[in-house]
Amino acid sequence: MENFFEMFNKAIETKQIIYQYYPQSNYLVKKIIEHINEYYNQEISLAILSEKFEVSPAYISRLFKKETGQGLFDYINEVRVERSKILLLETQLKVYEVAEKVGFKSPVHYSIVFNKYTGMSPKQYQNAM
Asked: Where do runs of H (alpha helix) occur along the chain?
């Protein structure tokens, strides 16, 4: 029952974020954002999204950029970095464990992306907070 409420609250939070930041967005873009926010810790690719939503990868890419103003993979990385910031602060997980939990296959790639979005390494972020 506790897991149900946690999942329910997460779904509500995701919908609130989508409608707050992308109120005018196309229905498909909203569904893609919901998918990313729910499955950010799993593999996400244009091919996977294309198959799930039954549209071409090029269409998803163009539409997402047009509707949100940012590239699809920039958005995915942004979500993963934001989720990882919480894990870095609220758990005792090592950086490579955090990287894995938020969907990065390589801790090195995770550190590069994290630095791009925050201006510091995950370890520096963890120590500064």
From this structure: 2-21, 27-39, 46-53, 57-68, 72-90, 95-101, 107-118, 122-128
